[in-house]
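User: I'm preparing a small set of examples for a lab meeting where we compare how different chains pack in three dimensions. I only have the primary sequence for this one, and I'd like the structure in token form so I can line it up with the others. Please keep the answer compact; I'll paste it straight into my notes.
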Amino acid sequence: MRKNRVVLASAAMVVAASLAACSSGNQGGTQPSGGGNAGGGKPTIAFVQGVIGDNFYISMECGVRDAAKALGAEVTVQGPQKWDPALQQPIVTSVLATKPSAILIAPNDVSALQRPLEEAAKDSKVVLVDTTVEDPAFAVSEIASDNVGGGAAAFEAIQQLVPDGGKVLVIDNQPGISTSDDRVKGFEEAANKDSKFEYVGVQYAKNQPAEAANIVTATLQKHPDLKAVFATNLFSAEGAATGIEQAGVKGQVQVIGFDAGPAQVDALKEGTLQAIIAQQPYDIGYKGVEQALAAIEGKPTEKKIQTGFTIVTMENLETDEGQKALYASECS
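Assistant: Understood. Below is the structure token output for the 332-residue chain.
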């Protein structure tokens, strides 16, 4: 496990959206040459994204592709159009029909994908990237950010931005997603330890920026003295920023966003977001391929790997570290 580094206002600490320029295909992903056992005996790896068009998963795909190229594997990439296990399950079924050597997947739900992935593991090595399931025993490795730590870091950022305390809100995607559940947990645990702050709860935007904006508007009507919002993913942060802007309280309500896509960076520059927590999706993808190939070759694997994250503010945005932390829009 890596030690995380926290930077806020000049210090630094290391979980979805535009269409992936490096992805295409019937199911929202790439179908490069070499499915199944094509490619002259090279191992084949199927990467199933949590959702297409998310800069987080684009960055992860770049890591997957670079690792596959360096280590001699063939890759296909697919993903559902929305974060929905009902859409992801048929993709898993389709992928299994190609009999890949390994599957890298970000499960859309901790319960719904349990049985399908257990079945997948009978024929292919399975690596869980970013998200997980209730019982991941079948997986050769799980690779994700320290999401509990990320939630706690988000609250620490709020403590520094709002030193006098006040009311704080969390906007999440939906219950049952392991990564964002952990972010909420980390934030709640930290907030409940500081009596200067009143935690007004978590609400769910279901990956819809417009719904996140509505949540902010409604919360401000009920709690006009709201001081800060923690948005747990890219879409929630985008919507929260919009809601703050529409309510005319830019600069009065501090917003911490998770993920570092173009929309979050723009909001940071505009002053609507005061900090963004960047994960390391490229590293997650690269390490996922490494673990998959180790399992295919019968070598030892690391059962659980945690990657870090960086808190990006205007203080460090233009530094090498800040720029490196931002998510890709396409793979080079």
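A couple of notes for your slides: The domain at 44-144+280-306 is CATH 3.40.50.2300 (Rossmann fold). Confidence is low (pLDDT under 50) at residues 1-39.

User: Perfect, thanks.
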